[in-house]
From TrEMBL:
Protein name stated in the entry: 1,4-alpha-glucan branching enzyme
Active site residues according to the UniProt entry: E189 (nucleophile), D350 (proton donor)
Superkingdom classification of source: Bacteria
SUPFAM superfamilies with a match to the protein in the record: Families 57/38 glycoside transferase middle domain, Glycoside hydrolase/deacetylase
InterPro entries noted in UniProt: 57_glycoside_trans_central (IPR037090), BE_C (IPR015293), Branching_enz_MT3115-like (IPR040042), Glyco_hydro/deAcase_b/a-brl (IPR011330), Glyco_hydro_38_N_sf (IPR027291), Glyco_hydro_57/38_cen_sf (IPR028995), Glyco_hydro_57_N (IPR004300)
Residues the record lists as binding substrate: R241, G258, W404, D464
Gene Ontology terms, MF aspect: 1,4-alpha-glucan branching enzyme activity
Residues of the 1,4-alpha-glucan branching enzyme C-terminal domain: 425-524
Domain Glycoside hydrolase family 57 N-terminal: 8-328
Amino acid sequence: MQKGYVSIVLHSHMPYIRHPEIKDPLEERWLFEAINECYIPLIQVYEGLIKDKISFKITMSITPPLMSMLQDEYLNERYTEYLKKSIELTEKELIRTKDNEELNKLAKFYNDRFNKLMKTYEDYDCNLMNAFKKFDKLGCLEVITCSATHALLPLIAINPEAVRAQLATGIQSYIDTMGHSPNGIWLPECAYTYSLDSVLKEFNIKYFIAESKALLYADPKPLYGTSAPISTPNGVCAFGRDMDSSYQVWSDFIGYPGDENYREFYRDIGFELPMDYVKPYINAAGIRLDTGIKYHKITGKTEKKQYYNRERAMEKVREHAAHFAKCRQDQISGLSEHMEVPPIITCPYDTELFGHWWFEGPDFIDAFIRESSKENYCYDFITPSEYLMNNSRVQCCSPNPSSWGENSDYSVWINSSNQWIYRDLHRCEEIMIRLANTYKSPSELQTRALNQAARELMLAESSDWPFIIKNNTTVEYVIKRINTHIDRFTRLYDSISKNIIDIKFLEKIEALDNIFPDINYKIYET
C-alpha cells in the first residue's frame, strides 16, 4: 500500500569554464570528467530503466552555465577529442596489461566503458541537452532551473536588481533551451533569505529546494518538519532536505561511498605510469592529470591498495541500494501514521557526487529505483511539482535564512579569505543598475557593450569562486577569473560612458564570454 513518496533531486552544475583563448586549459577537464563520469552514465541509467519499463521520477537542476556548455559547439568538439584519446589510451592499456589477468580484465572494462560513452554521446548528436529534454518530455525527469551563473543570491541582495537579473536571465535561458517555463528552482547552495520570496513569486516559481534548517527553524515551526513542503507567505513552496537519507550518502563516516570495495578516487594511471607513456593523454603542458582509468579499490586506510573488483563493487551497490530502500520504507511507514498528508522524503544531492567522487553512484541510483519498483515497498517516486499537484494543502511558514554549506549559513562564501570579492561585485552591480537606468535608447553598438557588461558582471558573481578560495584549491585561477571579469566590466563601463567603444575589444570578449546570447541589460533597471 502506497503511504508516501521519495523525491530524488540532483543538482547539476559547472562554472563557466570555456577558454578557447588557452591551449588545453586545465579547467575544461572539470566538465569533461563530469560528462564521462556523471552525465552520460545517468543518461544510460535512464535509458535502461525506460527500456525495462521501470517507472521512475527524478528531478534534476541543470544550471544555465552547464546548459550553455553542453550545447557549445567548441566544447563539444573538444570533448569528442578528449573521449577519442581516452579510448586510444584504453586500447594501449589492453596491450600493456596483457600479462596480468586481473589488470587486463579491468583494462577491458574501461575500454568497453569509454566506447559506450562515445556511442551514447553520438546517439544524442553530441549534445547532451537533447537527452535531458527527451526525458523531460517523457515525464520521468523534471528539469528545474537555477540563477544565471550560480550567484549566491543572499550575498548580492543588497542590490535587489542584481538578484532579479540573475533570476530573470537564468529562467529565460532555461526557457530558450527547454521550450517551456520551469516549475522549480535550485537556489544556488540552497541559500535562502526572506527577500527572495517575492521575487520568486514574481517569476512564477512554484517551489525551491531548501536546507533542512530552512524548514526546521521556520516561523511558525512546521507540523511535519522536512517530511512535507511548506509555503512561504507569497505561496512559493519549499522542500527541505531530509537529513537521514543525506547522511547515508554524504557522510564521511557512515556514507556508502566509503565502502572498501568501491573504486579509489585518488589512484589514477595519469599519475602512476611513466610520463612518456601518459604524456599524450594528460595536459599539453605536461601537467599530470586524471585519465579516468583507476585500477584500485578503496581497500581501507592504507597506501597498499588492492585491485578493483567490478563484480564485487556491484554486489555492494545492490546491498546498499536495498538498505537505502528499506530505510525509506521504515521512515515513510513511521511518518505516515502521524501525518494527515503523505510524507515526502526529499533527497537532494550534487549530481557530480554520483560517478565522479563515487564512481558507482549512477549504478546505486539505478539499483535503488529497481529495488523500489518491487511490490513490497510502500512509497513511490515523485517530483516536487507532482506532489504539489496532488497535495494542495501546504502549511504557510516563513523559511529560515540558511544554506546547505558548513554551519548551514553563508560563511563558506563570505569569510576572511574571500570577503574582498563583494566590494568589487557590489560596486559593479551599482554601476550596472545605473547604466540600465540611464541608457533608455542606446545605439546598436552601445546595446552590445551594455549586454556584454551584464555578462561579465554575472560571470564574476558565481558562487564557485569564493567557494574555491575558501577551500584553497585552484585559487590562482579563480582570482584571475574574478579580476578578468571585473576588469572587462570596468573597461566596458568607461568606454560606454565616454562613448568611445573599442569594437575590436568588444568583439573579442563577446567571442570569449559568449554565454546568454539573448541577454538584455535592461533587466537591471530599477
